[in-house]
């Protein structure tokens, strides 16, 4: 019996379960945080060194595009942290069954952007 397999993968039509989305976003957020680390370190250094560098920091952060980037980095940090805690619990054999695994994945997917928006709007 021959199996008729597709010759290509149509990625938009593939259904990904929520735990796999959490895993993929965990990796993407880790890479994003690593790539933007020099920007974050430059911004943090600008707040501490002198008054003129703090004024430069304020001018850079006042730009709405920079604020959106920082809110995106805040989401990346929160998602990476929440997913990391979830993965640590899974490594400790907590929540391995289907229902708790899906619940914890949904908590990570929804909690990270909500907390990022709340903190981002409060700091805007």
Please write out the topology.
Blueprint: H1 18-35, H2 37-48, H3 51-61, H4 64-91, H5 98-123
Provide the descriptors you would attach to this structure in a database record:
elongated, 124 residues, mainly alpha
Summarize the structure in words:
By secondary structure, the protein is mainly α. Helices cover 77% and strands 0% of the residues. It has helices at 18-35, 37-48, 51-61, 64-91, 98-123. The radius of gyration is 20 Å and the shape is elongated. The mean pLDDT is 90.
Write a compact overview of the structure shown.
This protein is 77% helix and 0% strand. It is an all-alpha fold.
C-alpha geometry: elongated
Structural class call reads: mainly alpha
Question: How many separate helices?
Answer: 5
Distance between the termini: 62 Å
Strand count: 0
Helix content: over 70%
Q: How many whole angstroms does the radius of gyration measure?
A: 20 Å
Q: Main β-sheet: number of strands, strand sense, barrel status? A: none
Average pLDDT over all residues? 90
User: Order of helices and strands, N to C?
Assistant: HHHHH
- Low-confidence regions: none
Note the beta-strand portion.
under 5%
């Amino acid at each position: 019996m021959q199996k008729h397999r597709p010759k290509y993968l149509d990625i938009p039509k593939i259904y990904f379960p929520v735990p796999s989305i959490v895993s993929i976003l965990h990796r993407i957020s880790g890479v994003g945080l690593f790539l933007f680390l020099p920007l974050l370190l430059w911004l943090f250094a600008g707040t501490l060194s002198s008054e003129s560098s703090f004024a430069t920091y304020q001018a850079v952060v006042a730009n709405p595009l920079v604020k959106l980037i920082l809110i995106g980095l805040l989401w990346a940090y929160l998602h990476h942290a929440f997913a990391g805690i979830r993965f640590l619990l899974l490594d400790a054999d907590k929540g391995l069954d289907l229902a708790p695994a899906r619940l914890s994945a949904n908590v990570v997917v929804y909690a990270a952007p909500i907390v990022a928006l709340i903190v981002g709007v409060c700091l805007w």
